Amino acid sequence: MPLVSSTPMLQAARAGKYCVGAFNVHTLEMLQAAVEAANAMRSPLILQTTVGTVKHLGADYIAAAATVAANRSSVPIALHLDHCSDFDIIVQCVRAGYTSIMIDASHSPFEENVARTSKIVEITRAAGINVEAELGRVGGVEDDIVVDERDAMLADPEECAVFVERTGVSTLAPAIGTAHGIYKGNPRIDFDRIAQIAERVAVPLVLHGGSGIPDTQVRRCIELGMAKMNVATELRIIFSDAIREVFNDHPYENDPRKYMLPAKQALAAAMAVKIRLCGSSGKAGELA
Question: What is the pTM of this model?
Answer without folding.
Answer: 0.92
